[in-house]
């Protein structure tokens, strides 16, 4: 039996969904937000270094659960394997209210203006699907600003000449740049003629939005913030949206499919509620915000006569171009102790190598890394140091507190064959077909990442490192927490899945408003861009609904 | 008394009380002899020295034993096979030979040069890596899971053992 009709049903309460829901609820529309995970409170932080969203050898703290959520990964040799969410290669992102924003490191980057026009800047790269976005940095600028002020960003990028214009400064100053690492790296960058500045972070440096400032602990990326100083969607826009009385959030609600009329218009969605009962939620508009892998899965699982291969997929663009970031960089060992236990650790960045690298079609922002807990450093060593035995222990003992890591997210060259499709056999605990993922990175992405390692190493050497080593990357399938690209936006339905507003070309009332729509994924952590796109889509959908007299 | 000092005194008193014997409680999944073999294996991976603790002091085999009832349940057959195989290689004397001799044997397994009849088609490479990672987790990870007893590895590294800033005395304070 169908539930009472609402104006909009939004699927996924991660980085994007609560923003769309809030924009619609504040505009007076009735909204249902479906989230497959549950609420977690800041007091569930637990400081568990073996069970969190970054190091999950004992499981994911914030979902999805290993039980009943398999995926299939086809490796570079063509062998298929069923994977659990806590296994490498699953390309997991948290499944909970707030999604990744509950436990992220919270870097809050605006993409560079040229990140939206990589094809115009670099020309076509062979064997890729490199293209410009249908929107520009200037189109998104007001929404970046809205995300920065409504959700809350600290930092100071005024020292960064490699960025688009901003109309307003960030609302909060940076977390105090007092760590030894920051001071060494800042001096070194200036010596090299580079342009260091304070990383923008979705983290309170001063009380903001009714929540306190960061207490500088070491348990940051991968963990919920114990004092709620990290700004996610769950402690900002979602509260605003719920306060309107127009939003109903349903947790432990797993969406099965978008229900389609023969013409492609959506009637609503079918989902399994917290008691595993199948429900139908009718709505005027359906907004998909499940993250690039799960959003693609939902579209592919939503079929009708007019969409035999899944909604939005008549031109075969859904699930294609899966991309994340290739993280590469270098480690350096210092003569003196650099560990001062001042979280979050990451604080200083340079954008000198984001674009304009000779002979290369891209680059990366470079920054110092978050505090590495002992379990995150125990497999890190320069060539020649054994993995185990006395020498391995002695290396850890001497160098754990003297190591600095500098790394950055190389903007990936999108690839047609890096893809998510439905597995013909494997199903989840509700009987819904799961993803089968295959393909890998473009060779040129790996070349750019390799170039970046030398820049990271030079920075560390200038900072006084007595020993350095570089860490490049491979061609394995990329997605992870930065997953993007599986329902590309574009003007032409033959070469994209959604239009410039996120509306699925093949349906008048289904939108995708998460990182799935990214044409390329920037040389930066993508979350602020995801938020900006969600604000823009929410505003657009509210306007459309009003235009229809709803 | 500061809160942290209280904890240190209290935990010291507790561990001191029942600690005449090295193992205060029986292992959950491993037999007495399997546990001894695993401990000798872990000891070679992270040896104890005069100045610094090793896998033994951190009780990494305890961590592994506990996890074999939970997240590592699926690895039980691999553990049983590997522990039996290493004993077979040494005529049941793996726990008695020196750390240097154990190291030489384990280096063979690491390279996949174990007898395939005993170790399977990869010569032991995979199970070696599995046990290495689990041992490192039990040594460097949070004590809540049964390893890193009394924060021995964190003390060795020189990082504050009170895990939250604002809750205790920061390093050097």
Please specify the SSE layout and strand pairing.
The complex is a heterodimer of chains A (550) and B (173).
Chain A: E1 6-11, H1 17-26, E2 31-34, E3 71-74, E4 80-83, H2 118-122, H3 137-152, E5 154-156, H4 180-191, E6 197-201, H5 237-243, E7 247-250, E8 254-260, E9 266-272, E10 278-288, H6 292-300, E11 326-333, E12 348-350, E13 366-368, H7 374-377, H8 390-399, E14 403-410, E15 419-427, E16 433-438, H9 443-462, E17 467-471, E18 510-512, H10 527-547
Parallel strand pairs in A: 1-2, 1-10, 2-7, 3-16, 10-18
Antiparallel strand pairs in A: 3-4, 5-6, 6-12, 8-9, 9-10, 11-14, 11-17, 12-13, 13-14, 15-16
Helix pairs in contact in A: 1-5, 1-10, 3-10, 4-9
Chain B: H1 3-17, H2 32-45, H3 55-58, H4 60-68, H5 76-89, H6 99-110, H7 116-119, H8 125-140, H9 152-157
Helix pairs in contact in B: 2-4, 2-6, 4-8
- The average pLDDT score of chain B comes to 85
Distance between the termini of chain B: 16 Å
Which class best fits the helix and strand makeup of chain A?
A: alpha/beta
Task: Please give the count of helices of chain B.
Answer: 9
Overall outline of chain A: globular
Distance N to C terminus of chain A: 24 Å
Helix content of chain A: 10-25%
Give the strand content of chain A. 15-25%
Computed structural class of chain B: mainly alpha
Task: Briefly note the CATH topology name of the domain at 1-46 and 92-104 and 109-147 and 232-323 and 416-439 and 481-550 in chain A.
Answer: FAD/NAD(P)-binding domain
Tally of helical runs of chain A: 10
The coarse silhouette of chain B is globular
CATH H-level name of the domain at 1-46 and 92-104 and 109-147 and 232-323 and 416-439 and 481-550 in chain A... which superfamily? Answer: FAD/NAD(P)-binding domain
Under the CATH scheme, the architecture of the domain at 1-46 and 92-104 and 109-147 and 232-323 and 416-439 and 481-550 in chain A is 3-Layer(bba) Sandwich
Task: Sketch the major β-sheet of chain A.
Answer: 7 strands, mixed
The Rg value of chain B, from CA coordinates, equals: 18 Å
By oligomeric state, this entry counts as: heterodimer
Q: Which protein chains are joined by the largest interface, and how many residues does each one contribute? A: A-B, 32 and 35 residues
Low-confidence stretches of chain A: none
As residue ranges, the low-confidence spans of chain B are: 1-23, 167-173
